Amino acid sequence: MNAGRFLFAVQRGCRQTIKRPVSLSMVLCCLQSTQAVSAARLPCRVKLSAGKRYAWCSCGHSKKQPFCDGAHRTMAPSFSPLRFTAEKDRTVMLCACKQTKNAPYCDGSHFKVIFRDLVKSVKSVFK
Asked: Residue 27's pLDDT is what?
């Protein structure tokens, strides 16, 4: 087979081969996330203002972490931001690993993410 007929869509180590003509919508479909991406391993310290509305990024693709910039529309359409209003002026830790059970606030789940990444790194050393 001719290598020129193949299109490789690569995302996070997954490779998919398409043997027919491809449209832009097909490529975007291959590159879209179905799981949240960890934006950072540690939470973001943020000052919230009482009565102000915020949109917390739940997909992890936003460039304005921990807040949403609309990147989910193309990168992870199955996700939507979590909208919330601050009840009082305060500084909080907002989750950036996207694994929290208390969204948008950090609950310490990032320790599991860090540990999982560490174990993965150690295993790769001994392969």
From this structure: 42
